Amino acid sequence: MKKGLFALSLIVSMLAFTCLAYAQSLEQTKQKAEQGDAAAQCSLGSLYAKGEGVAKDWAQAKAWFEKAAAQGYQKAENNLGVLYLKGLGVKKDFAQAKAWFEKAAAKGNAAAQFSLGFMYAEGDGVKQDWAQARTWMEKAVAQGDAKAQLTLGMMYAKGQGVEKDLDKAKFLLEQAASQGLAEAKEMLDKLK
Fold this sequence. Notes:
67% of the residues lie in helices and 0% in strands. The chain is mainly alpha-helical.
């Protein structure tokens, strides 16, 4: 069994569907989505993925994410990566996940940058590459991504892919903990 930074379920469970939250009614969001508004399409896809206000429907989620992604909407590209990484309503496909994450990450999407870094750290669908993991995590950390702060902090704490540096580890874990990540608080307690 492959050993990575932490259990796959811990980090994958932190991957979330991200889209602009609409304060409008479901009907207004549907109307905007049908008119081609990429943000509304992504939001509608997220509602179907989460089963909020509608029945959970992975096919509908994917369809709306694809419409928004076709317009270059980075959050939808990231969400498609999540679907393929986790096998949600689609066959698990690491190559597809990576491709979607790369599109979104190239546009500066921190969640996609984190996901790429995670794939490289774990060797999920790619050859394990700590240098790539670090690069992508650092990009997401620069944007304040708490999951990336946690992961990069753990890399420094364990000396995985980087030279072990407990001061850097603590700094990053404190940043993640300040954003409410319980896992970061637990890791900080272990480092004391």
